[in-house]
Amino acid sequence: MPFQAPGTAHPSPTTPSGDPSMEEHLAVMYERLRQELPNLFLHSHDYTLYSLDVEFINEILNMRTKGRTWYILSLTLCRFLAWNYFAQLRLEVLQLTRHPENWTLQARWRLVGLPIHLLFLRFYKRDKDELYRTYDAYSTFYLNSSGLICRHRLDKLMPSHSPPTPVKKLLVGALVALGLSEPEPDLQLCSKA
């Protein structure tokens, strides 16, 4: 039996007009996604959240699928590719918001992982924190009138650079302050004549 919000036997109208049952669908799906998304790469996903004709628009791999079976295969492919690229992997949900005006839930999330090739090339490093890579993505989940996800749009990942390590900056600043190191010179393309 597909997932449906409790106490909603009558389907909602097809226009997002502030229907109280749709508000309830959004609230229930918000809680379900809040629990499911962080474990997407660790445990099997609950596919009863999706309608049988769910449309998956994946801008990362540039593919579109329609139907729950194809969605399961597509998500399995994404998980397979991620686990073959990263030695360690976790998904962090940065923000999950409800939008009753268009029946959507929007999730901003980050994939944090240690690429296998960097692990092999830098195996001698004891501290591997600087080898981790992060990728941000944006998912939009569209709900149908029965409260199930009918479309999942995944927008392209933007690689985000790891924040610079403050210890190195602090060390360079201390050396410059003590006069043991010269600050990097500014480039002056014009002469002061």
What does it look like?
Residues 1-21 are annotated as: Disordered. With 193 residues, the chain is α+β, with helices and mostly antiparallel strands. It has one domain (20-178): Nuclear Transport Factor 2, Chain: A. It is 28% helix and 32% strand. The chain is built from four helices and six strands. The protein has helices at 20-36, 68-85, 116-121, 166-178; strands at 50-58, 63-66, 86-99, 104-115, 133-143, 149-160. Strands 2-1-6-5-4-3 form a six-stranded mixed β-sheet. Strand 5 and strand 6 form a beta hairpin. It is elongated. The protein starts with 19 loop residues before the first helix and ends in a 15-residue tail after the last helix. Residues 1-17 have low confidence and may be disordered.
Give the gist of this structure.
By secondary structure, this protein is an alpha+beta fold. It contains four helices and six strands; from the N terminus they run H-E-E-H-E-E-H-E-E-H. The chain has a six-stranded mixed β-sheet.
